[in-house]
Write a structure and sequence with these properties.
mainly beta; Lipocalin; 8-stranded antiparallel barrel; 1 helix; 53% strand; globular
């Protein structure tokens, strides 16, 4: 099953690349949802160092299985990813850090926010 999910994610991201939206891995996170279940995911974007808003994707392997697409944007203090009913928020930093995962609880319908541990990749970009 895990290999099937990985194959699906690879195929999906490849088709996004063919469509002109080449994405790279920005980081991966794991944590515990409000109901006690584990969640882990990898997130991607096509940020090139200059864009204020980029295309993004998140691939959940545990928790909310599946691939979701959305946007990546920045504020003065945070790096924000939005995917339908999910949001990822990080301080503008790299390496081992904490982030927030915001999601809608499918049973209560309420919005929940949990802290997750993340490994954020560091990329160097040419000047705009």
């Amino acid at each position: 099953m895990k290999n099937l999910i990985i194959s699906f994610v690879t195929l999906s991201l490849s088709s996004l690349a063919v469509a002109g939206t080449s994405m790279k891995v920005e980081g991966s996170c794991s944590g515990t949802l409000a109901d006690g279940s584990e969640v882990s995911y990898t997130y991607y974007s096509n940020f090139n160092g200059c864009k204020k808003v980029s295309t993004s994707a998140v691939s959940f392997v545990n928790g909310f299985d599946g691939l979701y697409t959305g946007t990546r944007s920045f504020t003065d203090s945070s790096d924000n990813y939005s995917f339908n009913s999910y949001k990822l928020t990080f301080a503008n930093s790299t390496g081992n850090t904490a982030g927030k995962l915001t999601y809608k609880d499918e049973f209560s319908g309420r919005t929940k926010t949990v802290k997750v541990k993340c490994e954020v990749r560091d990329y160097e970009y040419t000047d705009c």
